[in-house]
Specification:
mainly beta, 1 helix, 218 residues, 12-stranded antiparallel beta barrel, globular
Length: 218
């Protein structure tokens, strides 16, 4: 009897898992999510810096950093997005600079109202209002929207093309408030500003960056 009960419990768990996986796969179709109307390639580059708190056996310290990088992302008419971002990250360690080169892929199933991929999950329309939980989806990685962040964004209209507000962390020790504003220039060129401020153990942690996004419609 015990074996039968365990077997039925396992079957129920597998059945629930299958239902969950099926729901995730069908989610875009259940809610009528459709691919974006057009395909494009975005090229972005930016640079910035800031500081965060770190701890070791001697106590709590401030570590300044600077970074700069670029990314390229292609959105297809079908629900696929592919891209890559890379940057040079330089942090100050005592009396010397320590440079690091990082890169991160952007591979996603990207519908108009829903996106899921290596850079996180988005629900809502990029051109209207959306919420996201993301990792490394903005150049520069740390002084941009933050390496790990969650928030809401959208297009509020002139003079902005995008506004984002949220919280972020990593490598910052404490959570902080982050914001991005983007302004359109001309010929599918946009300039964006990012800012972040928080504190950890009463010490400030902040970042600021500026960059440009260029869109090439297909």
């Amino acid at each position: 009897m015990l074996k039968v009960t365990l077997s039925l419990a396992k079957r129920k768990r597998w059945f629930r898992c299958c239902k969950l996986v099926g729901f995730i796969i069908l989610l875009p179709y259940i809610f009528g999510f459709t691919p974006a109307d057009s395909s494009y390639t975005d090229f972005s580059f930016g640079a910035g810096g800031g500081q965060y708190v770190y701890e070791d056996c001697s106590g709590t310290h401030i570590r300044p950093f600077e970074e700069g990088g670029a990314s390229v992302t292609t959105k297809l008419k079908s629900p696929f997005r592919a891209g890559i971002a890379a940057e040079l990250y330089v942090q100050q360690e005592e009396s010397k600079s320590s440079p690091h080169l990082f890169w991160y892929p952007d591979l996603a199933l990207d519908w108009r109202y829903f996106s899921l991929g290596t850079t996180g999950i988005r629900v809502g329309d990029n051109d209207f209002l959306y919420g996201e939980v993301s990792i490394a989806n903005q150049i520069p990685f740390v002084a941009g929207k933050g390496l790990l962040h969650m928030g809401i964004g959208g297009n509020p209209g002139a003079p902005f093309s995008r506004v984002w507000l949220g919280i972020n962390q990593v490598p910052y020790r404490g959570s902080g408030l982050g914001m991005q504003v983007e302004f359109p220039l001309e010929n599918n060129r946009f300039i964006f500003l990012n800012g972040r401020y928080g504190n950890y153990l009463s010490r400030p942690e902040y970042g600021f960056s500026v960059g440009m996004r260029i869109r090439y419609p297909k």
